[in-house]
Structure formats: C-alpha cells, structure tokens
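[step 3/7] fold_predict: job queued, chain A
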Amino acid sequence: MTTTKQYASLDNIVYDADALKLKKPIRSGKFVYENYPKNGGQKYQVLKTVDTNDTKNSHGYDTNGFQGMAVAPIDQNGNVDYTQITVAYAGTNFSDRKDVAEDLQGIGAGNRKNLMLTNEKSQKYITASQFDSALKFYQQVQTKYPNATLDTTGHSLGGAIALLVGSHYHVSATVFSAPDPWNAMTNTERLWALAHPESLRNYRHQGDLWSETDSKTLGIDGFTGKTVWCQTTASGMLKNHNTHMLSTFKFNQKGQAKQLKAQMENDIDLLDEKQSAIKKLVKSLKKSGGTFTHAEKIAVDAVEAIAMADSLNRIAGDGIGQIIKQYHAAIEEFEPLWQQTIKSAALIGAHLSDNEVIQALEAGGVRRQTVVDEPTQKLTAKIDQAQAVGQEYLALSANIKLVVDRMMATDQELAGMFS
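[step 4/7] structure written:
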C-alpha cells in the first residue's frame, strides 16, 4: 500500500518530467526511488510519461504545459507490480507561462476544455486544457493496463487535476496543497466527489498563500474531497509562502503525514463548506437542466447526508478524542500533586514522620481521597460519557451511510450517478 510520503515523493518526481526544467527529463523505462533524487525507499518503474514541452514525448497532445507520469512499484525481488499503478500530475512551473495560464483559466475561471495562450508574436491561440490532457493520459494508461488498479496524485495545480480526474473516473486521489477544482468539474463529478470524500484526500497547511487563498477567494475552499490539515516545517517571514511546498510536510516513520492535533474547529468549518458546495450544486443542476429531476433531488439529499456522516466521524475522532486525551492528562497530574503536597508539608514539619504528616494534612481537610481519588472518579465518569457520545456519533454516521447505500441499491439512476 502506498504511503502518504510516497505519494508526495512521486509528486516531487513528476516535476522532473518537464523538458523546460531538466535537459534530461524523466521518461518511461527509468527507475525512480522514494528518496529521489537519491536511491532508497520504495523503487518504481516509470511506465509512461507525457511532456507537452517535448514534441518527442507528447504525440497527440497540444502544447499546453501538461506533464503526466505513470509508475508501478517494484518488489524486493525486482518484480514490477503492474496491478498497482499511480498516475501523477505535475503542478505549476512558474517559469512556464502555460502553467500560469492554466491556474488562472482552469482553476480560476473554471475553463475545463480549452486554454488560451499567446505566442511569441503576441498572437492568441487556443489549445486543449491541461485538464483535458490529464483525462486523456489517464485513459491511455488504463487502456494499456486494463487489469491494474489505478489511483492519482499531484501537488498544487497537479493536485487539482488529480482531484478532477479521480472524480471523473471514480478512483482515489491523494494530493498536496491543491486548490479546489470545483469550478472546472461537471455536476456528475461534483456529485461523486461529495459522495466519496474519503477517496479524495487533500493534505494542506493552514495559511498556504496559493491553494488556500485561491480557493477562498473563489468561495469554493474545501468543496472537493477531504481536507487534512498537516504540520509544517515552514517558519519565519516567508512561512505562508513556503507552506505550499512539498518539502515542508512532516511525515512519521510509517510514512503518514503528521496532522494538526486539534482539528474540531476545522471539522465544523469543513461541514459548513460542504453544505455551501451542495447549495451551489443544486443551483447548477437547476440551471443546466432547466428542471430538477427526482433522481437529482435524491442524489443531493444523499450527498448532504454523506457530508453530515463524514463530519460526525471527524468530530468523534478529533473533537471528542481530544477531550478524552485532556481528561487523561489531568488524571495523570493528580498523584504527583498529592506527592508534592506531602513533600511540602514535610518541609514545614521536619520532625514529623510520613504518617504524622499525612495525619496533619487530613486534620486540615487535605486527604488523598479529595486530591486524587474523587477527582479521578469524576473525570473517569466524564471520559465514559465522552466515549459514549463518540460511539453514538459513529453509529449515526454508519446508519446514514447504510441508508444511502440502500437508496443507491434500489434506484438505478441514482446508483449511476455515484458508481
């Protein structure tokens, strides 16, 4: 199973498939490693690349700044696992005006099909968008390896592209610092994305000037997939700029991204964002079709229920879990407090034995029972209550998802929207 750190490594590697960046860019047949550019960690074989800045590596593609790479892991015996393929998309190369144009026209304006560019003679011309090229690239990989399980990944613009491709082909996407591609998505893709937040994970840093500012300005922040707020190594005056970079993510020894500890407030904000997304989707469905079909109404109800279920899971895991952790921390302080009380009292009555010190404290109303036992019992009861609430949230979440699954099982049109 690919770790979050390995996805981030692949997102770093795909940037080097760009002929504008390297004289010898990464191409199919090359072996790359998790610890790129050094050897070490998981080894991969590059199965296919497309670099539209290289005419020899982009047959059938418009010159629009797109780079894509498909890789398969290699096991310890040197065998390539063609059943597990990851498709990675490169993000913005700020020295390539085509990438910047895609940021503005694709992410900003929601133009999914075309990209308007300007040549050296200041003449405007139209090419296919990078979103269009990304869908084409994924389809080519899928056709060549029909028995493989594919997933997608990308950073920044590449992450937005991966989220859209994942929503289109109904596969998972693991992305980093990605602006939300909502404006470039079809209503069917939006429905699937809202119904499958766990399949579309966007690892982000708070204060990211690029992905967060862009999405918030457009009013679509957190609409697509599940936002996972992470710890960052960035600091200083350029922190909000550097938090966008892949190199500022922290990972543990298992290759998991280190998340922010207290996320309950963010969980509530994300629920609000999902509800805003659903409202916009309803408006778009009504506008595009002229009528709001029965199946579409049910679909919207379903994704709203799924968003609520996802939020209940988050609150149970983040909010209630944090409360329980704080209670346990408080309990652990009671015994040291009692021991320190005894030591302090002993200093005052140096001639008294330990038992006499305790008797003197009890005479003054200070007992182990009141300092340790009773507070521990009270907080233990609160922990039990919090755990019960958490279980109720999880049970409600499971019931919501069960109802949605039953709805899709009995309504073929609805199932078609989500499958």
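[step 5/7] annotate
The first strand starts at residue 31 and ends at 33.
The mean pLDDT is 82.
exit 0
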